[in-house]
Task: structure prediction
Amino acid sequence: MKITGAEVFVGGPGKNYVTLKIMTDQGIHGLGDATLNNRETLPAAYLKDYLIPCLIGMDPRNSEDIWQYFYLGAYFRRGPIAMAAFGAIDMALWDIKGKIANLPVYQLLGGKSRDGALLYAHATGADVDDLLESIDQYVAQGYKAVRVQCGIPDMPEGGYAIPEKGQHNDQFITKFTGDVPKLEIWDTEKYLKYMPTVFEKIRERFGDDLKILHDVHHRLLPREAAAFGKEIEKYNLFWLEDPTPADDQSALKLIRQHTTVPIAIGEVFNSLWDCKQMIENEWLDYIRVAVTYAGGITHVRRIVDLAAMHHVKTGFHGAPSHSPISMAAQAHINAWAPNFGIQEYLVLGTKECDALFPSDHVCKDGNFYVSDAPGLGVDFDEKEVKKYTYERGFHPVVRLEDGTMWNY
Ligand code: GCO
Ligand code: MG
Result:
C-alpha cells in the first residue's frame, strides 16, 4: 500500500482550520488537523513545502516509522509548528489504519474503558451576573463541568477570555482581529481580590456538585499562585489551570508545597520532553496537551502512559481552534485511556461546522460519545471548504497598568 498524494486545506466557519487529506493507491484516504491558532499558515506551509513530498510512496500503515522519520529527521525539531504538522500526518495515518481494519481508532488503542467521556464547557461573563447566566445555560444543557472566567471590576479590558456584556452566548467563534493584536490590561492585585468572591457566588447558586474549572492563563507569579490556591481550596475546584507561565515548570513546585488545589497544565507543550519533568515530579494533576500540536496520537499516547504512572489524568485542550478531526482523535484516546480525566469541548454543534466535517460523534448531557465508524469517524466536505478564505487573527497582548508587557 502506498501514499499517492496529500493536500492541505485552510478555512472554516470563524476559524482557519488546517485540514490535511492523505490519499492512497487503494482508494482509502485519511484526515488530520494541523490548526495552530492564529499561526495557521505556518504548519500548512511546513506540510506543503517539506513533509508531503517525502510522504509520497511511503506505506501509510507504518505510522510509527513515518512519525520517527519526520521527528528524528528534523534537525530543528519540536515546537508547535513542526509538531502540528507531524500531528496532522499521524492522525490521518491512524484514520487510514482504522479504515483498513474497518474499526474505530479506539479499538486499535485497546478498546473502550468508558462509554461517555466527561466534557467541560466554557462559561464566561463580562461580570458575575453574566457569568452565572452563562453557567445556567450549560447546566441546563446537561453539563456537569464548566470552566468559569469573569471580568474583574475596574479592569475593563483585562481578565482573560472575557466577552462584552451580554455576549456570553457567542463563544464558539473567535473574532479575527485584523492587522495588529488587541491590547488588554492586567492587574494581579484586583484579580486576586475579586476572583474568590466569584467562586463563592457560584457555589451559593449551583451547590457543591458542579465541577468548577478556572484558567489563570499564565498570569501569576509562583508565590501568588500558591497563596491563591490555598485561599480557594474551600471552593473545591475541579482544577486550576496554568497558574504560572509555562516556561518555568519548576514554579509548580512552590504551588504544590502550599496547596492541594488540583493543577492542570500543558496546552502549550508539544512533546513528551516538555512534559517529563513536571509529570515525573508529580507537580500537576491533569495534563492538557493536544493531539494537534503534540505530534498526533502516536506521541500523545506516550505522554498519557507516562502520566498514568504518576497519578496524572488527561484533560486535553479543546479550544475552538481544534477542528472536529483533532477533537475526534482525542475522543478515541479519551474512550481508551485508563487515566482519562476530562475533555475541554467547544467545537461541534454549529451548523456550518457540521456541514464541513460531517460525523456521528455525539455530545449529549455533558458527555462525548465516540462514533463506531471506521477510523476517526469524521468526513470532510471539500466543496464546503471553498466557501471560506483565510483571515489573519492574533491573540491579544497584555500589559500591566504601567505599560509593562505581561503574559497572555
Ligand atoms: C483554553 C485555552 C485557550 C487558549 C487558546 C489559545 O484553556 O482553552 O487557554 O482559550 O487561550 O487556545 O489559542
Ligand atoms: Mg487554557
About this structure: The longest helix spans residues 80-101. Residues 108-373 form a domain with the TIM Barrel fold (CATH 3.20.20.120).
